[in-house]
Amino acid sequence: MSKRPLQRLAGLVAGLALAYLARPAHAAADAADAKRIFNQRCTACHTYGKGVKVGPDLKGVTERRQRPWLLKFIRSSQTVIQGGDPIASGLFKEFKQQRMPDWTDLSEAQITAILEWFKAAGPEQKEPDERNAEVATSLELEKARRLWNGSLPLANGGLACATCHSIKGSDAAIQASLGPDLSTTYLKYQDRALTIFLKRPCFRRQPEPAPGKYLTPEESFALKAYMRQASLAAKATAPEAK
Questions:
Q1: Beta carbons of 144 and 158 less than 8 angstroms apart
Q2: CB 180 within 8 A of CB 165
Q3: Which domain holds residue 74?
Q4: Cα(133)–Cα(144) distance, rounded to whole angstroms?
């Protein structure tokens, strides 16, 4: 075989490999966009798996309706209804002739991403930081320890927690005192409050990251789990526990 066909083959293989490696990132971006659109435009009238609201429950909609029909209906439900479609007309009557807004600004790719997200039960999936801290693995706790003491940098920049805070069991070189000791913070606030706080803290962090970029969901979960571990250790060694 000459060099030219081999070069073409090598180029083809490399291109396929790059395309394969790129798929997860695109899939994650599509899911994030679908979630954003669903929360901004759909949840006022629809639920996913929680029953009828103003309009029908959208769980299972990708099994009940064909994709081309859904694409047309989401873009302009009134166009489909006025065209005499029996399913659309029946839904319009069933839900008291509530007019669904036309979403003609959404691209076919965006609507397809939403439908794929529905098919994968996306609205029922929890973000990494919304998981309960007690399910953290030893690897996640080790990652949290390194994030805490700064041996593993935060993805979006900023100082490590140990720069300002101390916590029971930390191996940080210096037990900082600029901020409060966080050894028992988890016992006081528990999962939900800490999840919300770590997502959108009420004070500025130095250096201030870009808007909307504080901790990644994975970092938030790991640090929450680390605080839980410290709180349990502090509780076990408290005088009243003995």
A1: no
A2: yes
A3: 16-124
A4: 12
Q: What is the pTM of this model?
A: 0.53
- Helix or strand or coil: residue 76? coil
Confidence at residue 177, expressed as pLDDT on a 0 to 100 scale: 74
Residue 51, CB half-sphere, CA atoms under 13 Å: how many?
A: 0
Average pLDDT of the chain to the nearest whole number:
83
What was the pLDDT predicted at 22?
40
* CATH number of the domain that residue 25 is part of: 1.10.760.10
Write down the pLDDT at residue 160: 86
Cβ-contact 69, 83 below 8 angstroms: no
Kindly give, in sequence order, each residue whose CB lies less than 8 Å from that of residue 241, ignoring residues fewer than 6 positions away: 235
Longest dimension (CA), the chain: 81
Q: Give the three-state DSSP class for 237.
A: helix
When divided into structural domains, the chain yields a total of 2
Cβ contact 199:176 at 8 Å: no
Give the contacts of 47 (CB within 8 A, at least 6 positions apart).
Answer: 53, 57, 58, 59
